Amino acid sequence: MSAFLEILRPGFLLRDALVGSVLVGIVCPLVGVYFVLRRMIFLGVALPQLSAAGIAFAFLVHRTVVGPHVHLEVGERALARLGASAFTLCGILVLAAFERRGRGIVEARIGVTYAAAGALTILFLAADPWGEAQMVNLLKGDLLATTERSLAVLASVLGAVVIVLLAFQKEFLLVSFDRDLAVVFGKAAGLWDMVLYLVCGVTISFGVMTAGPLVTFGFLVAPPLTARLITRHMMSFSVASAALGGVAAFAGFYCAYRYDWPLGPAEVAVAVSLLVAVGAMVRLWRALGLRPT
User: Fold this and answer.
1) Dihedral, 234, 235, 238, 244 alpha carbons, nearest 10
2) Domain residues of the chain, as ranges?
């Protein structure tokens, strides 16, 4: 109990890391909702890995053009964000183009993308041995190193993402559920797809920069899948996803702080535990002839 109260204190030493974790835990599920709707959950695996490849490439460029790395240098981190965003957005656009043309198997394309991104990440790291140690920490997600400045940037970007998702929710839902119907209604389906992909790319890029690929993927997928089991309407689906993600992030942070666990894996473990627990409860309700509300 003392650890819980200590976390809630305004002067808590790791307050920025806690707030950053909760922000990622709330916003990533809001984006993951659309992966679930489009039945492209595995895209949540490939895109964070692409973002990681972009970060590794950005560090390699910095080493080649500018010189040796300086830990947490502002320009270096900005270049890493640019690399993560560029790789993620390019990957989304290419996969979306193939999806619209109906060429090949979706899962196969995503699998190839994941494998290629993983290979590129390792190759970029191998080509830049001087910065390998700090890049590995960044790619794993160094949440505990979150600063007040990086938290402000993260909050601004993710806040803008939430505003866009709320403002254009109807358009995003329409193109996600039925693209042909969106065209019939006079919606520019291609434009709204692009906007949604841009939002996804930005969210994933900043999520990976802050929490790493594992945590980003976990929050993209686990909370929406959990919420899907207990909700029936789109608004409640989104709200429940964000709430579950925020709770998992806070609970995971508490467990990591209380028991000295690695922070990222602890948060993902809590999110998956919620999914398993809710799934078991839903099965029990159905076995008893009840229906979850």
Assistant:
1) -120
2) 1-288
Scan for tokens 């619209």, then name that residue.
100
Dihedral sign for Cα atoms in the order 90, 96, 98, 104: positive
Closest CA to 15 of 185, 180, 155, 132: 155
Task: Return d(Cα 27, Cα 243) in angstroms, integer.
Answer: 10
Instruction: State pTM to two decimals.
Output: 0.86
Answer yes or no: are the C-beta atoms of 56 and 125 closer than 8 Å. yes
CATH code reported for the domain at 1-288? 1.10.3470.10
pLDDT in tens, 28-83: 999 999 988 887 777 778 888 888 888 888 888 877 777 665 555 666 777 888 88
